[in-house]
Amino acid sequence: MSEIESANETQTGKQESRIFPPPATFQAQANVSGMDDYRALCAAAQTDEQDFWCKLAREQLQWHKPFTQGLDESNAPFYTWFADGEMNVSYNCLDVHLTNGNADKTAIIFEADDGTSSKISYRELHQKVSKFANGLRSLGVKKGDRVIIYMPMSVEGVAAMQACARIGATHSVVFGGFSAKSLQERIIDAGAVAVITSDYQVRGGKQLPLKAIVDEAFTLGGCEGIANVVVYQRTGGQVHWSTRDIWLHELTKDQPADCEPEWVSAEHPLFILYTSGSTGKPKGVQHSSGGYLLWTKLTMQWVFDLKPTDVFWCTADIGWVTGHSYIAYGPLAAGATQIVFEGIPTFPNAGRFWSTIEKHKTTIFYTAPTAIRSLIKAADGDATIHPNKFNLTSLRLLGSVGEPINPEAWMWYYKNVGRDLCPIVDTFWQTETGGIMMSPLPGATPLVPGSCTLPLPGIASAIVDEAGHDLPNGQGGLLVVKRPWPSMIRTIWNDPERFKKSYFPEELGGNIYLAGDGAIRNKETGYFTITGRIDDVLNVSGHRMGTMEIESALVANPMVAEAAVVGRPDDTTGEAICAFVVLKRSRPTGDEARQIAIELRNWVAKEIGPIAKPKEIRFGDNLPKTRSGKIMRRLLRILAKGEVITQDVSTLENPAILEQLKEAL
Ligand code: WTA
C-alpha cells in the first residue's frame, strides 16, 4: 500500500500527515466494505434507533423468549435494553455452535507459558462448561449469586466465566496480579458466595501462588459469605486445604456433560468488574447479559472483520474488560477460533508474540501499545527477536487497545508486524462501555496513526464543554456519548448514586454519558483523537489506576503522614506513577530515603497489587499547598516530569517546598 501524503493536521499540536486507506483486497472481502457501507449503517441507526438495535438483537442472538421492546428510557440514566426478553449468554456462546456446523471447530488454542499448546473444540468446551456449571449448582450456587473468579489465563478461566453465565450467577473476575487485600475488598463489596481460583499461575517460567492469596484474603476477615473455594489444579504445587476448598476436577468428574441453562432477562447482571475511578475505592461496573453480548459479538464482525477461517488472538488478561469482551464472550458468540495465552510477551524471549503468531497462523492480532513499545525496544537490542525474523504472513488485521498509541509505535507495528499490508484498528473503549466505541472499520475507514478515527454505527460520540455545549471540530473538550447503547454500564454495584454522579452528571443534563477522557476532532476529517483522562485516573501499561487509591494505600503505612500521587509520561508504560510523600518523622535523604522508598513500594504492592507500585517516590517536609490547604497537584505533575515551574506560585503557602521535591532520589 502506498503512503499518501496529505496535510492532515491532528490539532494536537503535531502534524500527522499520513493516511492509509484500506487495501483494495481487504475492502473487497470486508464485512463492512467501504465508507458508504459504514455511513449507511450510521444512517440506519440514526433514522430509527429502536428498529436498528432490535433487528440486530434478533439476528445476532437466540432468544428463549423474544423481547417486545429495545431501549427503555423511562428510568434514565438507568437505561434498559430488550428487558422483557429471556436468553442465556453461555447458550449463545456454546450451544448455538453445536448445530450450526461449528461443533468440531476449534474454539480455543491454549498456548501455555512453556510453549506447549492444546486445542478444544466448541463441542468439548460446551461439555466442560456444562460440567463446571453443574458442579457449581451442586454447591448451591444459583441465579443472582455473585462468584469471584481469581484465575490464571486458561481454558478453565474462560470456562469458569461461562459456567457462571450458564447458571445465572454474576461473576466478578479479579486480575491475578491484585493483592489479598484487593481481593478481600471485592469479595466483600460483591457479597460473593464462592471463589473460583487455581493452585498457582505460571508466568515467565515462574509459579506464582493464587490459592494462597485467597487464603490470605480470608485471614483479613469479612469473607464469611464465601461457602466454597473451587480450585483448579494448574501445577500440582503445594497448597493449604480447608473444609471450604474443593478441587475443580473432583467437583466436575461425575457431573453430566449437559446442563440446562438458566434463562434470564436480557438485563440480568452478567458480571461486575471493578475498575478505578477518580475518588475512593474501585467501583463495581455492572454489565447486562443481552445488550452486552449483542455488542461484543457485533464488534467482532465489524471491527475485527471476523471470518470463519480466522485465528483471533487478543493478548489481554481475562481479569480486565478486554479479556471479558474479546476473549470470554465476543469471540465465542461469534464462533471464532481464538488463542488463549498463559504467558508473558518476554518469555522465553521478547519474540514470543511473533513466534506464537507464526506457530498458530494467527490472522487477527489485538494487543496494547505498551506491549508494542516494549517489544520495539527489545527488537532494537536483539535482532534475532525482531518480527522480521518470523513468518507473519498469516496476519491480515492488527488491533490496539487500552491507551493512546503514539504514531511512532503505530508505524513500527504497521511496517514490521503488519508488513505494510494489515490495517490497524485503534479501538477506543472502557470497562464501562462494554465493547469498542470508536475505531476504524478495517475495510472502510482510512487510517491515521494515533487516531481512533470515528464512532461505530449507533454510537453517538461527541465533544462538549463543561456546560455540555457541543464544540466545533478542532477544539478539545470532554468526550461524551449522547445516546444509550446496548452494552453500556447499567449501574455501579451497590452504589447507584455514584453511577449517576460519575457518568451522567447534572451539569451535562443528566442523560448523556461522560467518558472521563478528553478528546479533539480533526477539522477536516472529523476524526477523534483521545487526549487523555480528565480525572485523577492514571493509565499505566494500559491498566487503570486511581491516584486516590494509591494515596490511600501509602497513608495507610504507619510511617506516612501524607502522600500525593501523580502520573508522568513514560516512553514504555505510557504513564508512570510518581508519589510525593511526607513521613511522620523527619525527611529522609540518601541511602535511607532509597531504603524507605523500597519499603513503601512493597507496601503498595501488598495493599493493592504489584501493578500499583510507584515507579518513583520523593520525600518532602511537606507538600505544596494553597493557603486553604489544597495540594497543588498541577505543580507536582510538572516536578514529576522534571520540568521547571514557570508559573506564578505566590498563592502557595510554602513555595520553598518545591525546591525539595525537585530532585529524584
Ligand atoms: C484509555 C480498556 C486512547 C482511555 C478497554 C479510557 C484509550 C481507558 C484507548 C479505559 C485508545 C482505552 N486510545 N485511549 N484506543 N483505549 N483508552 O476501562 O483513557 O481499562 O478511558 O478499558 O483507557 O480503560 P479500561
Automatic annotation (TrEMBL):
One MF annotation (Gene Ontology) recorded for this entry: metal ion binding
Biased amino acid composition, Polar residues: 1-14
Known cofactor(s): Mg(2+)
Post-translational changes noted in the entry: Acetylated. Deacetylation by the SIR2-homolog deacetylase activates the enzyme.
E.C. code: 6.2.1.1
Sites where the protein binds CoA: R203, G204, G205, K206, T322, S541
NCBIfam families on file: Ac_CoA_lig_AcsA, PRK00174.1
Name of the molecule in the record: Acetyl-coenzyme A synthetase
Organism per entry: Solimicrobium silvestre
Taxonomic lineage from the root: Bacteria, Pseudomonadati, Pseudomonadota, Betaproteobacteria, Burkholderiales
